[in-house]
Structures are given as C-alpha cells and as structure tokens.
Amino acid sequence: MGLIWRKDINSECKLGIWEITEDYDNLLSRLKLSDDDLKILEAFRNRARKVEWLSVRVLLNELTSERHSIIYNHNRKPFIKNNPTNISISHSKDLTSIFISPNKKVGLDLEFMSHRISKIEHRFINKNEKITDNPELRKFHLYVHWCAKEALYKICDKQDISFIDNLTIEPFEPKEKGVLRGWVNNKYFHEMFNLEYFTYNNYIIVWTCK
Prior knowledge:
Blueprint lengths: L1 E8 L3 E7 L4 H6 L5 H9 L3 H18 L5 E3 L5 E3 L5 E7 L2 E7 L4 E7 L25 H18 L11 E3 L7 E9 L4 E11 L2 E7 L1
Antiparallel strand pairs: 1-2, 2-6, 3-4, 5-6, 7-11, 8-9, 9-10, 10-11
C-alpha cells in the first residue's frame, strides 16, 4: 500500500503514515542500507520486526526524498544521522508513522485500538484527569489520552517522566478528530502543549510540535 497519508503542518513539519502491505524483500529493495544498518536489521530474529524496521526507513526517504540512517540515544530517542532534523516515530500493527521538523521539537504516537487499554488505565490516568463514563466512548477516550501522553513523552526527550506524576491532559470530549491540551511538569519542563489527533480505521494518531 505504501504512503497513505501525508500532511505538511505549519510549513515546518511533515507527518506521514505508511500502511505495510509489502513483504520484506520489497521493502529492502527500496533502500540502500549501510553496513551498520544491515547488521542491525540482521540482528532482529522476528520477521515482522524486520519489516516494521524497514518500513520506517522507506517512509523517511519518501518524506524527505533523500536517503537517511536513523540512530538512537540511550533513552531510545531517534535521530537522523548527520542531520539536525527532529524526528518522532511510531508504529502499531500494520501502520508506521513519522513526524519530522528541521526547527521544531516533535512528538507523535500511533496506536491500534485493541481491548486491553482499560487494564493499564491505572498506570497513566491521574486524579486531575477525567475519562468519560459512557461505556461506548470509554475505550476510545482512553486511547486518545494514552497516545497524547506518549506524544508528550517523546517531545520531551523521554527524560525523567512519569505518565501519572508528570503528564496531565486537560479534560476534553472525544471526537473523531480534535485538539487537546497537555501539560508536562518535571525538573526539565513546566510547559503546555497543544496536541492534535484523528482516527484512521481502528487507529488513533496524535501529534504535537513546538
């Protein structure tokens, strides 16, 4: 399927979503990997993980019209090798997404909505946050909330952040798409972020930039 969604945001940020229908060989043929990248790829034992890894690199090349390598720091925060462009990456089930900007910090999360979110609600909802009591909307509301916090976690470089103690999403009414506000409070940040979200089939996508 390939690139199914692309959006230029604020003329400074690009967001792309790739639907993985290609097999391993097809994706690999679209890339010219370095020896280091090939070693990383070959180290994955799971075939699906290899396909996912390749799809990220193919999508990045599609968004930039260039060939790049992606590296990670000790917090597993991604960077584009030898390039100052900021990048955030997310993948879930059959979708891969990338958010990039040369000047702004970026955070992105993408999740397929399964039925397990309620089991971890206690790990990320704090006493100042509100989730709807409507049983038909509750799972959806929780997923938007979770994705928003993941996007905040990523834009703040994954540094010293508890989803309960340091991230707060202001109350919002869940819709198919919208804008909400989130706060980060820790020793590095005391800051508010606007987050945009939308749905695609059974997926939630949330992003923020600043």
